[in-house]
Structure prediction request, 237 residues.
Amino acid sequence: MMTTLPTPGLRSRLLTPLNPVSLGDAQRRTAHMAAAVLLAYPDDAARATAPTVQAALAGLPAAVRERLEPLAAAIADADDDALRALQADYVATFDLKRKCALYLTYYRAGDTRRRGHALVRFVEAYRAAGFELDSEELPDYLPTVLELSAQAQGEGAKVAAALLAAHREGIEVLRSALAQLTSPWTAVVEAVCLTLGPVDEATAERVAELVLAGPPAELVGLSGYGASDSEGGSPWM
Prediction:
């Protein structure tokens, strides 16, 4: 009779959910815009914007501010060599490790036909919030969703909040993956989690499942969203 053993290391990859902090609407918008800047590719434009981010953080609760300040300072103070090193780290983390995807629908839909439908729903949500995408990024790109949350007002703000809440498990899995890598972007995702509602039991269970198995894979294209059928291999390196 074969004994089934627990998966080695599974518990070490699951992080305890963070308790949200109390923020006003203006503070939440500021935190989400700052996180959007810091989670985007650290190019010259990000370096030029980082001092503005630093100044804006002063009005945020300490738990959020202290998680955003280090990377904002690192980008603002980076010389060309340091910026190139940060860029290389960014690519190695977010572009080459699929468990660190910044695309929210990937965690639930993976490389399956369902992801194309999920992306269409994101576009529809942006339009419902009164926004049209003008970037080359997919609509579920976390910095773009955070920017929507920072800029939308009224019903649009509710749409942005609903998008983040609906994909909370993906954000939590991203946080766990970044923490495992001791990535400088871990604290930024933690700051985002602090601005969201508490993680309920059902979401925690989905996070555990995703950490163990990874997103589903069918290896089909995303029909119009730029992904090809050639993206093989395990989505959970």
In short: The two ends are 31 Å apart (CA to CA). DSSP finds twelve helices and no strands in the chain.
